[in-house]
Structure formats: structure tokens, C-alpha cells
TrEMBL record:
Superkingdom of source: Bacteria
Gene Ontology biological process terms in this record: defense response to virus
UniProt GO MF annotations: nucleotidyltransferase activity
Alphabetical UniProt keywords: Antiviral defense
This protein's name: Nucleotidyltransferase
Length: 253
């Protein structure tokens, strides 16, 4: 079996249903009454975001991301919005866990990240997010994120790297990983899938540590700052081991 045949076999196994029968839509439907009770008329929209919409999700590690857009007229602060959603979810029987910009709950066996945000104005898709780490806010635009990742056409390589990350138990946030893969392959064309994945490992081994990765929707938000130097060293070491491995099943399976 060639490298490409092996990697494509993994991609088929890890395919995620994004059609009308997708569990993402069922989870969203289950939660919508809770969101309406919590936010009322301030709720503008709830829609899937993250890996599901970018085409970079893997079946064995699928987190469902729901982006909750609130009106710019919402009186509560971003910190208060998080706290009120946490309370509401607890009241209806969930056990929410606080994360940096989201609340995580388990719904129908799925891990679901809820990202509440306040729209900045009615003309754009820019939103303000609360960052629990540091207690501050940051601007984001999930539509820009989705379009940026989809336009790069690196979904296959990203999905392989996510599978590798999960199996090696690395602290490598998905958006940071996606942007890193895109950067690593930005000047690479005409190679096989196997070679392109190797190029990403070489980039992680040789260049990753010194590159500051910027949010394409906010030039003041450095995504690379979300991972400690110690965790970056673990990523580099794992990439070095991957590049030195004799067989693909030693790298990812």
C-alpha cells in the first residue's frame, strides 16, 4: 500500500456527515429552545462553525461548535453573557465546562462547544468574544475563518494532522493547527498527499516555533500565543519523530 493509499483510507474512515442528517443539526435543534429562553429577543442566530463548516472535521474527534450571535444591543457584558449561559445550562440539567472562549457540554453523546458572542454592528459579521484566559475580549469573524480555511484547499492534510494530534495527545488547538498547515503548504504545489503531509511535519520540526500566527479576522489576535512554549516543544518533538518514522502506521493510524 502506498502512502497516499494509506492516508486516503484513514480519510475515508474519518469522514464526517455534513448533510441534512448530520448530528450537528440535531444537536442544534435540541438546544435552540434553551437558547431562546436564555437570550430572548437578543438572540440573532445560532449556526455551526469550526471544523464542521470548514471541512476539516474527523469522525473520531468531532467536536460540534455552535456559534451564538447576540445583538449589539445586549446590555450584559461579555463576561456576564458567559456566566448567564453557564447558569442556564446548569439549570436545565447539563454540566457545562468553562473553556477559553466557549462552554462545553455533552449532548446526545457529542462534545459540544458553545461560543456566545456579541455582534459589533449590524453591517458586518464581526463579533466580540470573551476570553476567559486574561478576562478580556477579542474581535473575531467566524465567516472569515471558514472562508479562509476552505479557500486554502488543505482539508485533507489538516484532517490527517488532527488525527495525528489526537493520537499523540498534543495541546494544539484546531484553528492554530489549521492555520499552521496552510502556512506550511502555502508555496507547495504538485506534490502527493503523502509528501504534503511530510512537508507539514518538516515545517513543524524546523520553523513552527518561531512563527507568530495571526488571526485572519483580527491582526491584533495572535493565535500562536494560546499555546505555551512547553507545549510547542512537545509538538516539535512529535513532528520530528513522525518525520523520522519508517512506516506511516507509526505516525498515524
Amino acid at each position: 500500500m502506498t502512502a497516499d493509499e494509506y492516508l486516503n483510507m484513514l480519510l475515508v474512515r474519518e469522514a464526517v456527515n455534513t448533510g441534512t442528517t448530520s448530528p450537528v443539526l440535531a444537536v442544534q435543534a435540541t438546544l435552540m429552545p434553551i437558547f431562546w429562553e436564555w437570550a430572548g429577543s437578543q438572540l440573532l442566530a445560532v449556526h455551526p462553525s469550526g471544523s464542521f463548516m470548514k471541512g476539516t472535521a474527523i469522525l473520531s474527534g468531532t467536536d460540534i461548535d455552535l456559534f451564538i450571535s447576540l445583538s449589539e444591543t445586549t446590555k450584559e457584558s461579555l463576561k456576564e453573557i458567559h456566566a448567564l449561559l453557564f447558569t442556564k445550562l446548569t439549570q436545565v440539567g447539563y454540566a457545562p465546562m468553562r473553556q477559553n472562549v466557549s462552554l462545553n457540554i455533552k449532548v446526545q453523546g457529542f462534545s459540544v462547544d458553545l461560543v456566545p458572542a456579541k455582534r459589533q454592528n449590524p453591517l458586518l459579521n464581526d463579533h466580540s468574544l470573551y476570553r476567559r484566559n486574561g478576562g478580556e475580549w477579542t474581535k473575531t469573524n467566524v465567516v472569515t475563518h471558514i472562508n479562509y480555511v476552505r479557500a486554502a484547499n488543505c482539508q485533507q492534510e489538516i484532517r490527517i494532522l488532527k488525527l495525528w494530534r489526537n493520537q499523540k495527545k498534543l495541546d494544539f488547538p484546531s484553528f492554530y493547527l489549521e492555520l499552521t498547515v496552510i502556512k506550511a503548504l502555502s508555496l507547495q504545489t504538485g506534490y502527493t498527499l503523502g509528501r504534503r503531509v511530510q512537508i507539514v511535519f518538516e515545517y513543524l520540526r524546523d520553523t513552527f516555533a518561531t512563527v507568530r500566527v495571526v488571526d485572519p479576522a483580527n491582526s491584533n489576535n495572535f493565535i500562536s500565543d494560546d499555546v505555551t512554549d512547553g507545549e510547542k516543544l512537545k509538538i516539535i518533538a512529535a513532528a520530528k519523530a513522525a518525520r523520522n518514522a519508517a512506516n506511516w502506521n507509526e505516525i498515524v493510524k
